[in-house]
């Protein structure tokens, strides 16, 4: 039995990511303002994430399998009762290929569960007849671009032989000479299984 497997993998990954730091509290507060004053507090909380990826991958599996339980002989015997038995030759090939598997996780909060960073706009202890404006703006942006090109080629060549058995040129085929000559064979099995996963992507965004 001969089993030969050739596996070739070519992968190229190009990624560019930009992540703004996780922010804490975003607060816009006017406090202790003066008489007839005009007060404006503006906070802009912006976080952006950009991901670009090019995935190129390929897998080639070549399986060459030969199983032989044949070629058995009981030849040129001068006495009977010659037995040749064979069988139970098994070959199994299993491949599991994963090409271009990408996982991207983006967390634009300050913790694991949003929202956890507080956003506050407040006017506190303002002066008489004052005009107070507090504004908080939150902006979350995610840009994800990915191109994946992948392929899997499986080539299997299988040869199974349980024949070419012989019981020739024997002179002991009669019962008084010891019986006949027997040749047996069988049970040559081959199992080939290929499983492929190509261009799978998982993107998780928490904002």
List the keywords:
disordered N terminus; two-stranded parallel ribbon; mainly beta; rod-shaped; 3-stranded mixed β-sheet
Largest sheet entry: 3 strands, mixed
End-to-end C-alpha gap? 58 Å
Average pLDDT confidence is 75
Strand order of the largest sheet: 1-3-7
Task: Please describe what this structure looks like.
With 207 residues, the protein is mainly beta. It has a domain at 2-20 and 45-117 and 139-161 and 179-206. 0% of the residues lie in helices and 65% in strands. It is built from no helices and nine strands. The strands form four sheets. Strands 1-3-7 form a three-stranded mixed sheet, with no helix packed on it. The model is unreliable at 1-23 (pLDDT under 50).
How is the topology of this model organized?
Blueprint lengths: L1 E18 L6 E6 L6 E31 L14 E2 L4 E19 L11 E6 L6 E31 L20 E2 L4 E19 L1
Parallel strand pairs: 2-6, 3-7, 4-8, 5-9
Antiparallel strand pairs: 1-3
Short description:
It is built from no helices and 9 strands. The chain is mainly β and 207 residues long.
């Amino acid at each position: 039995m001969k089993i030969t497997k050739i596996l070739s993998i070519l992968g190229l990954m190009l990624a560019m990511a930009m992540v703004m730091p996780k922010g804490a509290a975003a607060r816009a507060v006017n406090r202790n303002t003066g008489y007839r004053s005009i007060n404006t507090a503006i906070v802009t909380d912006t976080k952006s994430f950009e991901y670009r990826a090019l995935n190129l991958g390929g897998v080639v599996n070549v399986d060459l399998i030969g199983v032989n339980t044949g070629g058995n002989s009981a030849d040129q015997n001068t006495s009977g009762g010659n037995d040749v038995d064979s069988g139970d030759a098994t070959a199994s090939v299993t491949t599991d290929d994963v090409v271009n598997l990408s996982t991207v996780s983006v967390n634009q909060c300050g913790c694991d569960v949003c929202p956890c960073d507080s956003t506050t706009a407040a006017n506190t202890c303002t002066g008489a007849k004052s005009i107070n404006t507090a504004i908080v703006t939150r902006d979350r942006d995610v840009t994800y671009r990915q191109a994946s090109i992948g392929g899997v080629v499986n080539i299997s060549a299988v040869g199974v032989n349980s024949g070419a058995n012989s019981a020739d040129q024997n002179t002991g085929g009669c019962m008084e000479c010891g019986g006949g000559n027997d040749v047996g064979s069988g049970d040559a099995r081959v199992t080939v299984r290929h499983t492929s996963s190509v261009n799978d992507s998982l993107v998780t965004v928490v904002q």
